[in-house]
Every structure is written in C-alpha cells, then in structure tokens.
Amino acid sequence: MAQGQEDQPRDERNPGVPLDLGWLREVRANRSAVERRAATLPTRRTVKREWQAAWLLRAITCLDLTTLAGDDTPGTVRRLCAKARHPVRSELLEALGVPEERIQVAAVCVYHNLVPVAVAALRGTQIPVAAVSTGFPAGQIALDQKLAEIAASVRAGAREIDVVISRAHVLTGNWQALYDEVRAFRIACGEAHMKTILATHELATLRNVGMASLVCMMAGADFIKTSTGKEAVNATLPVGLVMTRAIREYYERTGYRVGLKPAGGIRSAKTALDWLILMKEELGDEWLSGRLFRIGASGLLSDIERQLSYFVTGHYAAAHYNPLV
Amino acid sequence: MSILELFESMEYGPAPETAEPALQWLAQHQPFDLFINNRRVKPASAQYLETINPATGKVLARVAAGNAADVDAAVAAARRAFPGWSKTPGHVRARYLYAIARHIQKHARLLAVLETLDNGKPIRETRDIDIPLVARHFYYHAGWSQLMESELAGYEPLGVVGQIIPWNFPLLMLAWKVAPALAMGNTVVLKPARYTPLTAMKFAEIVEEVGLPPGVVNIVTGEAGQVGEALVRHPDVNKIAFTGSTEVGRAIRRATAGSGKRLSLELGGKSPFVVFEDADLDSVVEGVVDAIWFNQGQVCCAGSRLLVQESIADRLIAKVRARMEKLRVGDPLDKAIDIGAIVSEAQLREIRRLVERGVEEGAQLWQPSTACPREGYFFPPTLFTNVAPAMTIAQVEIFGPVLVTMTFRTPEEAVTLANNTRYGLAASVWSENINLALDVAARLQAGTVWINATNLFDASCGFGGYRESGFGREGGKEGLYEYVRPRWEGAGGRASRRRGLAEAPASGENKAQSGNGHAEHRSNGLALAGSEVFADLAGRIPPIDRTPKLFIGGRQVRPDSGYSLPVRDPQGMIIGQVGAGNRKDIRNAVEAAHAARAWSGASPHQRAQILFYIAENLAAREQEFALRLVQQTGRPYADAAAEVQAAIARLFSYAAWCDKFEGSIHRPPLRGMVLAVREPVGVIGIACPDEFPLLGFLSLVAPALAMGNTLVVIPSPQAPLSATDCYQVFETSDVPAGAVNIVTGEREPLVQVLAEHEDVEAVWYFGSAEGCKRVELAAASNMKRTWVNYGHPRDWLDPVQGEGEEFLREATQVKNIWVPYGE
C-alpha cells in the first residue's frame, strides 16, 4: 500500500511524481461495470432530514461558484461574489443553528479578464478566486500562450487556476507530452492551486479518463476536474467514479491526496448529494471538504437554498424568495 | 445531534421506508386463509402458522397451515379450471398476464415493503430488483402467451402444475413459476415458502383484482412436510417445479420417479467468481459485493467462491476488505442499508456452524469492524482466505454472506478449480481480454455465466443449472418447454401399440420364416429364412462365425464376464450371441466416453460430415441390415428395408441439424447481449427400445452424437444385433474412438449402473414403466437428467414422434453467457 501516506501533512500539496508508464498500462475501466456501480451509488445511500440539511450545507462549502459566459460583465461577477459571501439567507442559517461564518462557498470561478473584479469583490473574505486558463475551454492555443495566461491570472490575484489539458495528447496516447504540459502548468501556477480539467467527454473512453487522471496527478495536479461545462456531456457519476478510483490508487501508492472537481450539469441538490455520497463511499470522509472536493456550478446554489428553506419551513419554496445567484 | 454537528461529522443518518401501509394491510387481512378457486378457504386443520420479521424476531402475521386435504381441494380446483384455461386463446391469456404485470407495478411499493418485512432483505433490493423483475416476468410471458399458437405450434400445456418456491426471493420465484405456467395454458397450485408467504397473499389479491378465472391459480400455505409433500405425491399433478435445496430436490426426484410427472428443479450452487489479473479490480470489488452480499448471500447463484489469479490476489483482497468496511448492516427497511437480516434463526445458526467449521479447518476469517444490530437475525459480511478446495466451506453451500477465496496461476487451473464442485448453477468471469473471458465461459460447467458482471437476471434469459444444481430452465424461450409437451403425447396421441417388433406373420408372403421349422441353432444370421440370396450357401459350407463383442473406446472388446447371451428370433430359435456386459463393462464404457469428450469440441460441420458418412456406409449395407431385421423380428423384408431407409434418413436429419440447432441471442435490458449457447450434456447413457431395433437405436444415438455428446448405449436386449452390426459402420465412418460405446446384455441391470453412475450426465431410457421408475430413482444420486418414456412406445417411423427438436433439446443444455459491452 501507500508508502508515506501517514507522513503527509493534511494540507501538503501533491508535488507530483515521475511519469510511470507501466502504472499507466495497468489502468482498467470496464464501462458496463462502472456504470452499474455508479447507478447504484445513489440507490444504496441517501440522507434525509437533518442529515440532508447538514450535507447540503457541506455541499455549499465545496462550491466553486462559477460564471463562464460570453456575456459576463463586471456587474454580473460582482453579483456572483456577493452571493458567494452570503450563499444562504441569514434567517435560514439561524433556523438551522449554523453560524453564518461557517457557510461560505469554496471559490468563485471566472475568466481571466474578470479576475480583478472578483478579487476586489471578495476582498475581506477567505474566498479565493479561481481563473479558468490555458485557452479554456478548447485549449487550442500555443503552450507559451497558455503559460503566459496562467502567469497573468496569478499576477491578477487568482489563487486557483483551472487549466484545460490538450485532449489531443490523450487521444493520440502521447502521455509524455501530456505529463510535460501539465508539469509546465504546475510550475507556472506556483503557489496557486491547479485543477486540471480533463474534458472527459472528449476523451471518448473511461479508460482514457482513468489514464489522463493518473498522468495529471503524476504531473502535480491539486485537483482533477471532469469538464469545462462546455462539452456535450459534462460531469457524470461514471466518469466521477473512474476519477475517484484513480485518486484512491494514486493516494495508496504515493501518499498524496488529490481532489476531485465535477463541473457542468450539476444543478440539483439531489445531484450534489449523489456526488458527496460518491466521495464518501469511494474515498472517505477526508474528501468531503472543499480542500479535496469542489463542485463547479452556479444554479445549484439556488436549488440547495430552496431545499434548505423547505427543511426549515416545511413548505416548498419559490425561487424569488431566494436572492439571485 | 445538531445540524452543525452533523455538518461536521458528515455521517449517514436513518432513512427508513415506512412500514405503516404494509402493516395496516396485514392487520386488515390476517389471519391469511388458503386461496383456492379465487376464494379464501379455511385450512382443513383449522391451524395457522406465524410468520416472523427476521429483522426483529417478532411475529408479523398468521397464515393458514394447509395439509393434504387442502392440497386435494386445490388440485381439484386447478383440474376443473384447466380445460377452460388451456383452451382460452393465447391473446386472452396474454391480457390476463399483462394485467397482472400492471397490478404488480401498481402495488410495487406495498409488495416491496411486505417482502422486506417478511424476508429481511434490504428495501433497496426489493424496491429496485425483486419487484421490477417480477413485473418484467409477467410482461415477458404475456408476450409468449400471445405468441404461443404460432411459436409453439405442435405443443400443448401439461395440465395442473405444482410449484414449490423458496424463501430467498419469495415473489420473484412466484413469478418465475407462475408466469410461464399460465402463459402456456397450465393451471397452478403454488406452495409459498414457510418463512415468507406474505407477498404470495398479496399476489392472491391481484389474481382476484384482474379477474383470473377461479382455479387457475391456487395458493396453499403451510409446512413443506404437509403441503409440499402432498403436492409432490398428488396423482393428479402433471408437473412439479421446485426451487430450493439440492437435498429436497433429490427427495422430490425420488418421490416422483416413475409417476410420469414432469420435473424442473432449480437447486443449490457454489458458484465460482473468477478474476484474472487483467480485470478492472475496482469493478471486480463491486462485483464481489453484488455476488455474495446481495440478499445476505442467500442466493442460489451467489458467487461464493472467489478465485483470483495469484499475481493480483493480495491487492484484490486488500480492496475487498476496504470495501467491506463500508458495507452497512442493519434495519432492512432503511434505504441506506446494504445487508439486512438473515431469514430465520435456523438459517443464522447454520451459517454460524459452517463459519465455525471453516475456522476449525484452518481457513482465515476476516470480518469488518462494523457491528450488527443486536435484535433480529444478522450476520456480518465475512471473508475467508487461506482456503483449500478440501475444506468444507469451499465445497458446501453456506447460503449466507460468507465468501471463500482461493488462488490460481493459469486459466487452465482457474477452470479446473471453478469446475471442482458438484454444482453448476452460475459463474462469473472477470477479465478485460475478450479472448480469455469467452474461452473460460465456454469451459465452465454452469447454466449462467456472467462476464464482468454478476447476479444479473432477466425474464428473457434462461436460468437453471448444470450438474446437481438441477435441470430445466426458467426464463427465455428455453424455459417455456418446461410447461408444454408435444401435442402427439397428449391424450390418444401415443402409439397405441408397439410397432416394429416381432410380429405374427400377417399373410403368406413371409410364411417362409416360420415355414422351415428348423429347431436347430442358427448362427450368424446366414441361414436366413426367406432370403433367396443366401439359400444356396446355407447348408453347403458352414458360415464364418461372427460373434459381436462389446464396442468400447473404439475397439471390439470381450465382455468382462466372459459370458455370452443368446439372441433368439420370434420363434425362439437362437440366431446369435452377444456379450453379456456387466457393471465393469459399463464403467469402462463411461471412462471411454469421457476420454472421447474432445468430440464436443469438434466443429458442427465436422460432426455433420461424420453423421452423413455413417448414413452413407449404412446405405452401402442396406440389404444386410434389412435382412438382420427380418431375422430378428420376423417382419417382412419390405418392412425391414423401410426401417433401414428411415434410419438412413434419420441420420441425414441429424447430420443436417448438427450445424443448425443453434443457440440464440437474448436481449435483456442492458447494453450487451446474452448468448444462449446450446452445449452438449456430456456423457449420456442410452437404453434403447425393443421396437425398431435399428431405427430406435439410431434415432437416439444420432441426435445425441450430433449435439456433441459421447454415449454409452445399451441396445435392445431382444434384438441387439442391429446395433452390434453398426460397429463396423461406425468404425468405417470416422466416428472417434469412444464417442459411441455399446454394451450388450441385460438392459435393466446395466441401465441401473448407468443411472447410478456419478460421472454420467444423463440417462435416456425407452423400456418398461417399471424400468423408467428405477432409472428416475437412481438418477437422483447425482441429479442427472433423465429422459424416459414411462412405458409408452413411440412410433419411431413417424418423424413427428421419432425425430426433431425434442431429441435435440434433450441432447443439449442451454448456457446463458451474459456479455455486457461498451468501452
């Protein structure tokens, strides 16, 4: 099992390890079997009542509240940041008996050019700004431009960088190139935490997802992330299952904990709970905090707030009672 | 705990499914009476039994204790209903079955909760697996009901069917039994399991709701010793379908021997779960969970023997242990529980006893740190390593959440270990290499093989065992034949008299055979009365002696006994001698038949070529064979020649069938396919009929051989020379040595040895009614398949009776190989 897994301080980052092609060749992902497990995860586990409310609050603290649209403006980003500071109506938190300062989103995620706006809007909080980078979402720009973009976002105050990998390296089996690319991203990130977006739908097979996950972790990813949100299909449980299993394998062999970030298509509180169940079952309670688990979403918060409101009041809530995301 | 504390701990909380509606339903309806003629009938005994919630140990309801008198009433009701129901058009029956399926869905949650209360299995399973499969089974068979007239033309229902079901999947097993029986036009007397009768009580209500005619479905609850016994022995029951333990199955086989009742048995298992080093190990772990911790391991096809390639064994076991720590054992009504309660205190004791035995025998036990509830009958998930095949826990069906692990080095060894069991119900193979997976699947002795999956079920796919796991299939088209018979077998359809036997001369044309009145010993059949061909030779010089020996392993060998038996013509004159085979000859023949099992691997084309060749070589000696028939039976030459022609045609038929009696591809609701492969049964012992000495012999040998079985054949003792004459035909036709072995002698003692032989997979017997009973009794020793005629002769000349799919089905068993796919 893991060498040194006991030794790793809980907040130590994954420094990466040398590329191990032999290990990579061992990766298996039987799609039908993975899908069966993914399908029964939400039917084998559920949380109700107080437990559900508590888990939903936890989901909020794992949220990368995100806006990545062509029509984003400083105004919409400021509005998002305001919601990030107060993700749940005060009277609901009061009724739930949870202090407001405990419930903050994990990060706010924007395009590079809006990083300064977000940084300014979040000043005075612990909430980091994450920037999507490296030619997000397609990643079809030159490597030096990608590195420059990372550096610029870090300079602008982003403490987290969501990079996209070159899908071509995966599809052509050029693992060395993928490793080198992600390694270079990591160096460019410096102190900023790096989430590597695999764009799993474009990797075509679950085995590719498993192998790409492993290479990104070997190259020093802090998080592996499913999707840009711009693919035809984004975060799905089968994909998440393959990635959590890769994370577990990497942890067992190296002792380093890498996080998971599903993004795209997670809109309902129920789906968020399913992802938390996946993390708890496959990786354990350590992976249930924002340090190792993020959900990239925006509309999700509204639904969670609605569910919390229902829990508190016993009536189904109307969206207009909750402040806009 | 406060929400803040829960926010920090992130524990699972209780998520109970409410039992209230089910408990109310029970309160309103109990005590439950018998269900006969769509009426609630008090049991003759006036006694009621308690059914217990195994999760609490508390009484749930009282249910009628039926007895033999109640079974009589139920069978009488079913008998009265049978003419009407069997003549009801398939479409109309389909409407009823469709309505049942709809009602199952309408009452799905009540049924799921009742099942969980009564059986102790998690609500997740009853809600997501049992009940949906029940509805699916009725939908699927509504379809067969609709199609019966066209797709099973030439078949008719059996009559009244007695069905006895187990406690592990109470309603699902009811569906597996009742749906095909009704679809094919039978009427039913069902005995639910003693421990779990409640969903059957709700099903009775559904029967009423859909307006099924009275008497079509009757349900008699009670103890096995009362109700089951009476049903099995009832003279007016045409078939028994049973799912349960091999021991009870064996007793049923014995109890019904010779009765003419059709029998299908789905019995125990010790199914292998084979993991190769290139498998997706994380998915394997989930497969293990589904294999042995599904329904607390109380599953006949549970993958209870984990066979792992040595190179990955440590890694896999570590993963399995880690996964076991995450299993949640507890209140089965909790939606977030993986393992519920064991069905009864007795079953729990049995599991404990076997687990203790495993420890005593030196296996290493491991259980997760999580605790079981104190109340109710619970047992933790259990893993044994350091297990050897010789240990009790490696051989015996535990029927609990207990997994035993062994390792192998090569695919060959994996197959050997997997097949090292008396059972053959199911198997699971895990590998990412399709070549390896399909090769191993083909070599496993099991009725169902799941590749990279386990415990998948669907109405469209046959389920049933090899070896001591029973016989017959449930589901798929292959399962329908358990509930029908060829129409000609029905009332009046049987041959009214034996044909093709020695007959009194009917006219002057063959008076010669009795005319010459020789009383002396005629040898070798050369002094053939009525044969001008040999007339000149006869009496001038002595013919060369031909003494048929036995035909074993491709060689003509002397009988072990050193004795011969005379063969007489219809006038009682000795026309030859054959070897007096004994049990040692049978033993040698069975060994030779096993040594020739490569025949099953011969391509169908190759087997067809050989059958054609047999026909060709027989045709070359047509006259000789015809004369031999005349000699043995005294029938007219033309009649005998017609029999030879029919035999040649029959060989052609089965040569034709060799590469055409194929399996099918089932399409259950999954991405993938299920290959229903027809495999040879193995070594078949065949006792030939006296009628039609050549045609009867070849009508049985040819289909068995065509499908890849190897044979030990006992020819008609009355007229064995047609069979022994075939030695030379087989020898010149490239039939591999040992594929057909022929032992002459007294049929009854010889067939007894075959029927008792534990390395013979099937016995076919065409002789007396008493002989049939003896064969069926003896066959219970290893639960071999039997095919007997209950003393009713067939008209072997009639192709409807004498050849066709019935023979091919008896010569094969269906293996369903589940192949999910997708990259």
UniProtKB/TrEMBL annotation, chain A:
Main subcellular localisation: cytoplasm
Gene Ontology cellular-component annotations: cytoplasm
Keyword Zinc appears in the UniProt entry: no
Keyword Repeat assigned: no
One GO molecular-function entry: deoxyribose-phosphate aldolase activity
UniProt keyword annotations, A-Z: Cytoplasm, Lyase, Schiff base
EC code: 4.1.2.4
Domain of life: Bacteria
Xref: Pfam families: DeoC
GO biological process: carbohydrate catabolic process; deoxyribonucleotide catabolic process
SUPFAM superfamilies cross-referenced by the UniProt entry: Aldolase (SSF51569)
Location of this chain's protein in the cell: Cytoplasmic granule
Substrates-to-products reaction catalysed: 2-deoxy-D-ribose 5-phosphate = D-glyceraldehyde 3-phosphate + acetaldehyde
Pathway(s) per entry: Carbohydrate degradation; 2-deoxy-D-ribose 1-phosphate degradation; D-glyceraldehyde 3-phosphate and acetaldehyde from 2-deoxy-alpha-D-ribose 1-phosphate: step 2/2
Protein family membership: Belongs to the DeoC/FbaB aldolase family. DeoC type 2 subfamily.
Entry-linked PANTHER family: DEOXYRIBOSE-PHOSPHATE ALDOLASE
NCBIfam families per UniProt: deoC
Name of the protein this chain belongs to: Deoxyribose-phosphate aldolase
Automatic annotation (TrEMBL), chain B:
Keyword Oxidoreductase listed: yes
InterPro entries recorded: Ald_DH/histidinol_DH, Ald_DH_C, Ald_DH_CS_GLU, Ald_DH_N, Aldehyde_DH, Aldehyde_DH_dom
Active site: 266
Top-level taxon in the UniProt lineage: Bacteria
UniProt keywords, alphabetically: Oxidoreductase
Coiled coil stretches, renumbered: none
One Pfam match: Aldedh
Residue ranges constituting the Aldehyde dehydrogenase domain according to the UniProt record: 44-487, 564-791
Gene3D superfamilies, per database record: Aldehyde Dehydrogenase, Chain A, domain 1, Aldehyde Dehydrogenase, Chain A, domain 2
Protein's UniProt keywords contain NADP: no
Stretches for region Disordered: 494-522
GO MF term list: oxidoreductase activity, acting on the aldehyde or oxo group of donors, NAD or NADP as acceptor
Family, similarity comment: Belongs to the aldehyde dehydrogenase family.
UniProt name for this protein: Aldehyde dehydrogenase
Native source species: Thermogemmatispora aurantia
